[in-house]
Amino acid sequence: MKIAILDGATLGEDLSMELFERFGEVSVYSTTSEEELAERIENADAVIINKVKLNAGNLGAAKKLSLICITATGFDNVDLEYCRAHGIAVCNVVGYSTQSVAQVTLSMALSLITHLPEYDRFVCSGEYTKSGKFNCLTPVFHEIAGKTWGIVGYGNIGKQVARVAEALGCRILVYKRTPVEERTCVDFDTICRESDILSLHTPLNEGTFHLLDRDHIAMLKKNAIVINVARGAVTDEAALADAILEERIGALGVDVYSLEPMRANHPFQQILSYPNVCLTPHMAWGGYETRVRLLDEVAQNIESFLQGGTRCRVDIKG
């Protein structure tokens, strides 16, 4: 079996791909451009991808391809209809990043509510030494206990965030299409109005595009913290930037963007230096243990396919 890993760099340079060698010959490419794609998939039996797009326009170059393994949960970068028509199996990985994304979500919230970067800068700049005072309590920070944490999307990540936030003393509100009995579920207007912290964990689809739009941002509390670790386009990014610029919300934490990497003309470029803004480069999913788990899941998908199984197959309808 010949396996081509087409964008290995997106998984980090610190991981070994040796676990796939038990299946056959492995070729690892850090990145693959559209111009390089045809040659690299021409004789591959299986490809492993993260962000590379595979569709009718380029899959025709693959003469032997029988399996596509996606190192992610989403599979919108693969043309499933083409794959079904040409007998190409497609597998994804689910549930691998729950702990990592929840950890970053909590880290953003705690950092923003406690103003840790500002206190760190106060000490490291020498201002603490110069002050002659034994402490500094500005900017004012608040306890997270007793705050209302609204969770939009209640899948594996949303559930983990809820568990940890509740352990810290937060009141939990949930917005999801199908309410659950174990949580207080409310409509989207209510969760926007009542949340002190609002974190987004929902997939991007027609129903969630710009879910947090300008009108709903206007409903947020003046000191609300908004955290988006879902998809950039779940929010109106320009409206969020305006809310920070006009001091209509308390803080903003974002790990995902409508176009990645974030472009030079992105609305968030205006708020890069704001102390109440935490922007990270789509890293929340990628803790070391998370990525090791991810690769192991992909290997299990390949093993299942070779044995005639259908583990994590997304090309099979029903």
Beta percentage is 5-15%
Please give the largest β-sheet.
7 strands, parallel
Find the count of extended strands (DSSP E, 2+ residues): 12
Helix content: 25-40%
How many individual domains?
2
- Shape designation: globular
CATH class of the largest domain: Alpha Beta
Q: What low-confidence regions span 5 or more consecutive residues with pLDDT below 50?
A: none
Oligomer: single chain
Report on the structure:
- The protein has helices at residues 34-41, 56-59, 80-85, 98-114, 116-124, 127-131, 156-167, 188-194, 214-217, 237-245, 288-306, and strands at 2-5, 25-28, 46-49, 67-70, 89-91, 148-152, 171-175, 184-185, 197-200, 225-228, 251-254, 277-279.
- The two termini are 29 Å apart.
- Helix 7 links the parallel strand 6 and strand 7.
- The strands form two sheets. It has a seven-stranded parallel sheet with strand order 8-7-6-9-10-11-12, with helices on both faces.
- The chain is an alpha/beta fold and 318 residues long.
- It has eleven helices and twelve strands.
- The chain is globular.
- Helix 4 crosses helix 7 (156-167).
- It has two domains: 2-96 and 288-306, Rossmann fold (3-Layer(aba) Sandwich); 98-279, NAD(P)-binding Rossmann-like Domain (Rossmann fold), CATH 3.40.50.720.
- The model has no long low-confidence stretch (mean pLDDT 96).
